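The material for today's practical consists of a large collection of protein records. An example says more than a description, so a record of this kind follows:
***
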Amino acid sequence: MKTANQLVVDANGQIETLAAEEAIKLKDDGNVVFVDLREPGEVEKGSLTGAVHVPRGLLEFQIDPESPSHNPKLAGKKKLVLYCGSGGRSALAARTLKDMGVTNVAHVAGGFPALQKALGGNKPS
């Protein structure tokens, strides 16, 4: 049996990982969509302005154009930059999206706290 940590390590070996500072540079790029995978209670504490909120458990359904839950904000050729509370859920989600055929996807190492720190400790806006 693999541990959750081993799954995250395996995922990180197969996906693009961005440092928070690199991700912040993409914030105003019209060809990038930030996807906040945290749960609603986590998002209430702050998020990036313009990020699409999709709780991790719903991502596969919202990305799938054939799903009744499809989110059109996730469709198209834009790069998806995923983040969560620490980087684990986003790494697993990025690998899953790659398995689904989404090729232009990355995740933020360290998640939301790293984004906060890269923005000088302020809550991202």
Observations:
- The helical segments are 4-12, 20-25, 40-43, 59-63, 88-99, 111-118.
